[in-house]
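Journal club prep — side note

Before the paper discussion, L.F. wants everyone to see what a predicted structure for a comparable chain looks like in token form. Sequence:
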Amino acid sequence: MRQRHIFGTVFTVEAAIAGAVFLAVLGLLAWTLLRHRGTRPPAAAERAERPRLEAYYVGALAAFALFLVAWTAWQNHREHPAAGPRPLRVDVTGFQWCWTFRYPGSPAHRSVTGTCEGHDMPTLVVPAGRTVQLRLTSRDVVHSLWVPGLRYKTDAFPHHVNTLTLTLDRAGRWRGRCAEFCGQRHHTMDFWIKAVPPRAYDRWAHGGTAPA
């Protein structure tokens, strides 16, 4: 959920800056049109350049650009922190047209998959409050793991592993889907991500029944 709040903050700040710039440009355009409405065309200025005004303009643009680059890089760092010393590892494989979630560190070597037809959607089970590292790859074409409600999205490529680190701070269930067109049944390629209390997760990882 931390990613969701960070994304919301970035969107709000950058949208406010974009809106302010748009209104400023619109205001200057309206002022110019109203000022010269119905008047004769102004005579050409004797000065060919205005270096001081141009310097202010370039400085303002550079300041905005520098702020946006630095702000975005900082928030991206916050959104994707380095994994802790021992995160829970889940190997995620996308294929046409569903998902497989493997837990190599679990005592029972848990593996979850499905067909993504009807209600047969696999569930990615994770413990609430614990850092989880997803290692994504694809068995065939490019897929994209996307959880709209949590604002997590990472591509899955064949012969390549992408890493996504997440921490869900409360129990709950969210629907995920493939966000990269991957063929005929792309629209059915959905899954569930379910955060459960740590004790419930430990029982399930040791071979117990699926957490309620």
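L.F.'s comment for the group: The chain has three helices and ten strands. Keep this in mind when we get to the figures.
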